[in-house]
Amino acid sequence: MPTVAETLQKIVSDLKRTGDIEASAVVSRDGLIMTSDIPPGIHAETFAAMSATMLGAAETATAELKKGIPDRIIVESAKGKVIATGAGPKALLIVMTPPEAGLGLILVEMEKAADKAKELL
User: Fold this and answer.
1) Residue 9 burial by CB count (10 A; 0-12/13-18/19+): exposed, middle or buried?
2) pLDDT in tens, 7-37
3) Which residues contact 30 (CB under 8 A, 6 or more apart)?
4) What sections of 17-80 are H helices per DSSP?
5) Which residues contact 26 (CB under 8 A, 6 or more apart)?
6) E strands, the chain, in order
7) In what order do the strands lie in the sheet with 23-28?
8) Cα separation of 1 and 84, whole Å?
9) For residue range 77-118, what is the model confidence (pLDDT) as tens digits?
Protein backbone atom coordinates (compact mmCIF):
# COMPACT_ATOMS: atom_id res chain seq x y z
CA MET A 1 0.00 0.00 0.00
CA PRO A 2 1.47 3.40 -0.95
CA THR A 3 2.42 5.91 1.75
CA VAL A 4 0.79 9.33 2.04
CA ALA A 5 3.92 10.91 0.56
CA GLU A 6 3.86 8.51 -2.42
CA THR A 7 0.16 9.16 -3.00
CA LEU A 8 0.66 12.95 -2.86
CA GLN A 9 3.54 12.63 -5.34
CA LYS A 10 1.28 10.66 -7.70
CA ILE A 11 -1.37 13.38 -7.40
CA VAL A 12 1.03 16.14 -8.50
CA SER A 13 2.63 13.96 -11.19
CA ASP A 14 -0.79 13.08 -12.63
CA LEU A 15 -1.84 16.73 -12.48
CA LYS A 16 1.25 17.83 -14.38
CA ARG A 17 0.26 15.48 -17.21
CA THR A 18 -2.76 17.74 -17.75
CA GLY A 19 -1.85 19.92 -20.69
CA ASP A 20 -0.08 23.19 -19.98
CA ILE A 21 0.85 22.61 -16.33
CA GLU A 22 4.53 23.42 -15.96
CA ALA A 23 4.82 22.92 -12.20
CA SER A 24 2.64 21.67 -9.38
CA ALA A 25 2.96 21.28 -5.64
CA VAL A 26 1.08 20.38 -2.50
CA VAL A 27 2.20 22.66 0.31
CA SER A 28 1.21 23.25 3.91
CA ARG A 29 -0.83 26.35 4.71
CA ASP A 30 2.44 27.70 6.16
CA GLY A 31 4.10 27.34 2.75
CA LEU A 32 6.24 24.26 3.40
CA ILE A 33 6.49 21.79 0.53
CA MET A 34 4.83 18.43 1.11
CA THR A 35 5.51 17.26 -2.43
CA SER A 36 6.19 18.91 -5.75
CA ASP A 37 6.89 18.44 -9.42
CA ILE A 38 8.77 21.65 -10.17
CA PRO A 39 11.30 21.97 -13.00
CA PRO A 40 14.88 23.13 -12.46
CA GLY A 41 15.35 26.86 -12.43
CA ILE A 42 12.37 27.52 -10.16
CA HIS A 43 13.17 27.97 -6.48
CA ALA A 44 10.60 25.53 -5.08
CA GLU A 45 10.66 26.83 -1.51
CA THR A 46 9.99 30.41 -2.61
CA PHE A 47 7.26 29.25 -5.04
CA ALA A 48 5.54 27.38 -2.21
CA ALA A 49 5.92 30.03 0.49
CA MET A 50 4.81 32.98 -1.64
CA SER A 51 1.85 31.08 -3.10
CA ALA A 52 0.67 30.14 0.40
CA THR A 53 1.09 33.77 1.48
CA MET A 54 -0.99 35.00 -1.49
CA LEU A 55 -3.85 32.59 -0.79
CA GLY A 56 -3.75 33.38 2.92
CA ALA A 57 -3.92 37.11 2.20
CA ALA A 58 -6.84 36.59 -0.20
CA GLU A 59 -8.68 34.54 2.43
CA THR A 60 -8.13 37.27 5.05
CA ALA A 61 -9.25 40.02 2.67
CA THR A 62 -12.43 38.28 1.53
CA ALA A 63 -13.33 37.26 5.08
CA GLU A 64 -12.90 40.88 6.22
CA LEU A 65 -15.17 41.99 3.37
CA LYS A 66 -17.69 39.30 4.39
CA LYS A 67 -17.44 37.64 0.97
CA GLY A 68 -16.52 34.18 2.21
CA ILE A 69 -13.40 32.15 1.62
CA PRO A 70 -12.13 32.17 -2.00
CA ASP A 71 -12.11 28.88 -3.89
CA ARG A 72 -8.82 29.79 -5.55
CA ILE A 73 -6.57 32.63 -6.56
CA ILE A 74 -5.22 33.11 -10.05
CA VAL A 75 -2.28 35.39 -10.72
CA GLU A 76 -1.70 36.18 -14.39
CA SER A 77 1.32 37.84 -15.94
CA ALA A 78 2.82 38.13 -19.39
CA LYS A 79 5.00 35.09 -18.65
CA GLY A 80 2.54 32.75 -16.96
CA LYS A 81 -0.20 31.99 -14.46
CA VAL A 82 -0.06 30.73 -10.88
CA ILE A 83 -3.19 29.12 -9.47
CA ALA A 84 -3.56 28.20 -5.80
CA THR A 85 -6.50 26.42 -4.20
CA GLY A 86 -7.21 24.89 -0.82
CA ALA A 87 -6.70 21.15 -0.37
CA GLY A 88 -8.32 20.78 3.02
CA PRO A 89 -7.58 22.63 6.26
CA LYS A 90 -3.88 21.75 6.23
CA ALA A 91 -2.76 22.06 2.61
CA LEU A 92 -2.84 23.95 -0.66
CA LEU A 93 -2.49 22.81 -4.25
CA ILE A 94 -0.52 25.16 -6.49
CA VAL A 95 0.16 25.00 -10.23
CA MET A 96 2.03 27.14 -12.71
CA THR A 97 1.10 27.40 -16.40
CA PRO A 98 2.27 29.30 -19.47
CA PRO A 99 0.36 32.54 -20.19
CA GLU A 100 -1.68 31.11 -23.06
CA ALA A 101 -3.00 28.13 -21.05
CA GLY A 102 -6.75 27.70 -21.07
CA LEU A 103 -8.03 27.37 -17.52
CA GLY A 104 -11.14 25.21 -18.03
CA LEU A 105 -9.58 21.75 -17.92
CA ILE A 106 -6.85 22.86 -15.52
CA LEU A 107 -9.36 24.08 -12.93
CA VAL A 108 -11.42 20.89 -13.21
CA GLU A 109 -8.34 18.71 -12.77
CA MET A 110 -7.08 20.87 -9.90
CA GLU A 111 -10.39 20.43 -8.07
CA LYS A 112 -10.17 16.64 -8.46
CA ALA A 113 -6.53 16.63 -7.27
CA ALA A 114 -7.34 18.89 -4.28
CA ASP A 115 -10.19 16.56 -3.28
CA LYS A 116 -7.80 13.57 -3.38
CA ALA A 117 -5.26 15.45 -1.25
CA LYS A 118 -7.98 16.42 1.28
CA GLU A 119 -8.78 12.74 1.81
CA LEU A 120 -5.13 12.05 2.73
CA LEU A 121 -4.38 15.02 4.97
Assistant:
1) middle
2) 999 999 999 888 799 999 999 999 999 999 9
3) 52
4) 44-64
5) 8, 11, 12, 33, 34, 35, 36, 87, 91, 92, 93, 94, 117
6) 23-28, 33-37, 72-77, 80-86, 91-97
7) 33-37, 23-28, 91-97, 80-86, 72-77
8) 29
9) 999 999 999 999 999 999 999 999 999 999 999 999 999 999
Per-residue pLDDT tens digits for 62-75? 999 999 888 899 99
Which residue type occupies 69?
I
Number of domains present in the structure of the chain: 1
22/8 Cα distance (integer angstroms): 17
Let me know: does 3 contact 65? Beta carbons within 8 Å: no
Domain that holds residue 67: 4-120
Cα-flanking dihedrals φ and ψ of residue 43, to 5°?
-75, 100
Amino acid at 1: M
CATH number of the domain residue 109 falls in: 3.30.450.30
Cβ-based neighbour number of residue 48 at 10 Å: 24
